[in-house]
Amino acid sequence: MKSEQTIDKNRIKSIIESILFIWGEPISLEDLSKTLELKPFYLKSILFEMMEVYKQETSGLRLTYINNKFQLSTKPENYHFVKKITKEKNEKNLSKPALETLSIIAYKQPVTKVEIEDLRGVNCDSTIKGLLDFELIKISGKLERIGHPNLYSTTDKFLEKFGIKSLEELPNLDELDNDEVEKI
């Protein structure tokens, strides 16, 4: 272990903050201690000093301590604003699986989850939930067969997001590259 005097305390705080920010998940005092090569007792005292600083109203972050682990996160009172911006960002930047699922729904609607999964070859529960949350798709009915599976269709918000007035403006499947068509 390094001597606590070899690294400036403010520099240690800066390093800890960077590690906690990048790590995202709770990290143990032991892991921080090994990484920084500092004694756990000394490191814990620094972390508790940092917790006090984050308690101030001027900080949007908080440092939590649970089960001998530390985590940097946003303050709960800022949740509404954080959720709003992350939702907007996620709506702007759909993942590849979300785009693939959305394409299938757009071209095959109304379509069941099983049909989507057959085409994609993977479970689509979370992707469909995300698309429902973003209001890009909706449950447009139920299929009249055993289990009454939901039927999914696109929404007006889907049209807005992709800048089209109607589904007729979607590219014709015959005009798309064969690799693209196989995904749909």
From TrEMBL:
Q: Does the keyword ATP-binding apply?
A: no
So which domain of life are we looking at? Bacteria
Membrane-spanning residues:
none
Which residues are the signal sequence here?
A: none
Q: Which InterPro entries match?
A: ScpB_csome_segregation, WH-like_DNA-bd_sf, WH_DNA-bd_sf
Record's keyword terms, sorted: Cell cycle, Cell division, Chromosome partition, Cytoplasm
What is one Pfam family matched by this protein? SMC_ScpB
Q: Which PANTHER family match?
A: SEGREGATION AND CONDENSATION PROTEIN B
| Name the UniProt record assigns to this protein | Segregation and condensation protein B
Q: Which organism is it from?
A: Peptoniphilus olsenii
